[in-house]
Write a structure and sequence with these properties.
heterodimer; A: 83 residues; alpha+beta; four-stranded antiparallel beta sheet; 2 helices; 31% helix; 36% strand; B: 192 residues; mainly alpha; three-stranded antiparallel beta sheet; two-stranded parallel sheet; 6 helices; 5 strands; 9% strand
Amino acid sequence: MRKLIIVAVLAFATPALAAELTMDTLLGTTLPEIKKNLTDMGYQVRKSDMEDGKIEVYFVKDNKMGEVYVSEATGKVTKLKMK
Amino acid sequence: MSVVDTSDGGRPGARDIVVWDPLVRLIHWSLALSILLNSTVIDGESAPHEWIGYVAVGLIGTRLIWGLLGSQHARLSAFPPSPVAALRHLVALSKDDKTVYLSHNPLGALMVYNIWLTVLLLGVTGYMMGTIRFFGVEWVEEAHEIAFNWLLVSIALHVGGVVFDSWWSGVPLVRAMLDGRKRVPKDRSVVK
């Protein structure tokens, strides 16, 4: 019974912790905001750049690495590159 | 070493000496081509950039092994890296000494090792940038960039040195790296 509860809790809790970054994710319009959101989603934030109204952040998660470009105007992901 | 007197329209007072074996020349021009490609037409973030980088590292690795096993002038022992010898060479230049080195002259030797080390550093930092541990880590990217800028400076100095030495010593060095032969003016003393 206890095992079942743990499994149930995990099943509900995990998706929230491991939210996946997609093109629909709203990450924020400032670098600190974007960094915080990515970190909360379980991404390890590496270097970042700002260029042409876009914020580019390098990240690592679960042995995967990638780059995300966020529009400073809308806070939306404009490009997501996994390596 | 083979010494051949030129009779085919070459300068009558010169002798052709075979110095660079085919592997040395192939590696030299392949390395030059890989650097040219990776720094110009190939996108730095593309997969071909990585392959070409690894090829460049492989070329240097092969050259180092060849430096132990290869022909006389190809051996690392024929052009040991020696700042003291390089300084002595500079002093000799200032005294109008036109001694010809059949392998690299001591300044050229330093440049060879410098370029190899710089390309190896580019290879190592480039590889690191693709690993989970160092992906997007700023100092690694900066090291890659600094090494690249240093490589450009080095190549400019290398080409300048080749032009200068060809004029100074009278041995056409580019031709030597193409057909393997150094055409040494007869009156020059020669260091093997």
